[in-house]
């Protein structure tokens, strides 16, 4: 069964999707910040899979960039722990001069071994 990059591999990065659901993400005005990673890893082969996240609701005061990056698997319960896999990284950049609140809703499809399951996540952003 594939494992999710976002929630199951919380040790993978400092800015995780799970943190976005629990707290506001602070973004420095005029700079770009990674707000999430998404993807899957096949637990038998340790190969990357998954589809690019869908932007359900774009930010009102900035723009997103989605890039493919390499990431180390941080789920200690996975036989793939420590290996490098590819994942989609989502970056947010506020509009020039903007300071205040923004939000983004992303959806990714994760295969649970039988079917694709849709997972919507809303990120609260505070531009300072």
Descriptive overview:
The strands form three sheets. The protein has a four-stranded mixed beta sheet. A three-stranded antiparallel beta sheet has the order 1-4-5, with no helix packed on it. Strands 3-8-7 form a three-stranded antiparallel beta sheet, with no helix packed on it. The protein starts with a strand and ends with a strand. Helix content is 5%, strand content 51%. The protein is elongated, with a radius of gyration of 15 Å. The N terminus is likely disordered. Strand 4 and strand 5 form a beta hairpin. By secondary structure, it is mostly beta strands. The protein has one domain: Immunoglobulin-like. The longest helix has 6 residues.
Summarize the structure.
By secondary structure, the chain is mainly beta.
> What percent strand?
over 45%
Q: Quick one: how many beta strands?
A: 10
Count of helix runs = 1
Give helix % range: under 10%
Helix/strand/pairing class, anyone?
mainly beta
What would the CATH topology be? Immunoglobulin-like
Tell me the major beta sheet: 4 strands, mixed
Unreliable stretches, pLDDT < 50, 5 or more residues? 1-20
According to CATH, what is the class? Mainly Beta
Q: Tell me, what's the shape?
A: elongated
Estimate nothing, just give the exact number of structural domains: 1
Radius of gyration: 15 Å
Span of the ends, CA to CA: 40 Å
Strands ordered across the widest β-sheet: 2-10-9-6
CATH architecture: Sandwich
Mean pLDDT: 82
Give the ordered list of helices and strands: EHEEEEEEEEE
């Amino acid at each position: 069964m594939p494992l999710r990059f976002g929630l199951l591999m919380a040790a993978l990065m400092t800015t995780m999707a799970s943190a976005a659901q629990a707290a506001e993400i602070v973004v420095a005005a005029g700079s770009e910040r990674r707000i999430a990673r998404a993807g899957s890893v096949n637990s038998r082969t340790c190969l990357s899979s998954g589809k690019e996240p869908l932007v359900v609701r774009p930010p009102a005061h900035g723009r997103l960039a989605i890039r493919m990056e390499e990431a180390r698997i941080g789920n200690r319960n996975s036989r793939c722990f420590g290996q490098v896999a590819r994942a989609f990284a989502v970056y947010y950049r506020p509009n020039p001069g903007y300071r205040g609140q923004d939000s983004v809703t992303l959806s990714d499809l994760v295969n649970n071994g039988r079917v694709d399951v849709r997972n919507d996540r809303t990120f609260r952003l505070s531009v300072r």
